[in-house]
Design a protein that fits this description.
With 217 residues, this protein is an alpha+beta fold. 29% of the residues lie in helices and 35% in strands.
């Protein structure tokens, strides 16, 4: 997988794993969360699902794997540092991004101690991560092209070679294309276009984009 934040694994959907440790139930629920707002909405949903739980501890990484730019955590009444921080540490080292986890605890009457709580909450996150399906998230740029007719088929072949997807085509005196290009390949695409076609094909603009047929950009 290419390095950097243009491509990385993200959850495809929600997952859940449950364990009982010394009569306490630990229910770990995981969901994709590309933004802080999505993470908070998911946390609120899980809390509403388990209003009688003793604790609903959470952690999230709303960004690339290992990034601490948009993270959050909460012990939700457990002793400080025994739940949220261990959960976040597992997420940050999981290799998965855009992810949120809530671990719901129903207290079973036996205290686990500080070390036991850390093991229970971090273990719950590891279990649900092992259950979660992931896919590769790709950042895309929408590149506008002006192409002369003699170069059109060559430009189409170049797009196929570089995993770029032609989104729209408009035909007049020349051809106007909008092409979705993986963000990490935009400069390579521009260079290849100039080397192969010169003045017959040129880039005019590029912006963030969704790949056609893909809900993630």
């Amino acid at each position: 997988m290419p390095s950097g934040s243009d491509r990385y694994p993200v959850p495809t959907g929600r997952a859940r794993a449950e364990d009982v440790i010394r009569r306490s139930r630990f229910i770990a629920t995981l969901a994709p969360a590309a933004t802080v707002e999505e993470a908070k909405a998911f946390i609120d949903e899980v809390r509403a699902e388990h209003p009688g739980a003793t604790h609903n501890c959470f952690a999230f990484v709303a960004g690339p794997p290992g990034s601490t730019m948009r993270v959050g955590m909460s012990d939700d009444g457990e002793p400080h540092g025994t739940a949220g921080r261990p959960m976040l540490d597992v997420l940050l080292h999981s290799g998965v991004g855009d992810v949120a986890v809530v671990v719901t605890r129903y207290f079973g009457g036996t205290k686990l101690g500080t070390g036991g709580l850390v093991r229970a909450y971090s273990g719950a996150v590891k279990r649900v991560l092992s259950e979660a399906a992931v896919r590769e998230k790709v950042s895309w740029r929408l590149v506008g092209l002006v192409v002369e007719y003699p170069a059109l088929e060559g430009v189409r072949r170049l797009c196929a070679e570089l995993e770029a997807v032609i989104d729209t085509e408009s035909f007049a005196e020349d051809v106007r294309l909008e092409v979705c290009v993986p963000a990490e390949d935009v400069e390579r695409f521009r260079s290849a276009l100039a080397d192969r076609f010169g003045a017959l094909a040129r880039c005019v603009a590029d912006t963030d984009a969704h790949r056609p047929g893909d809900g993630v950009h």
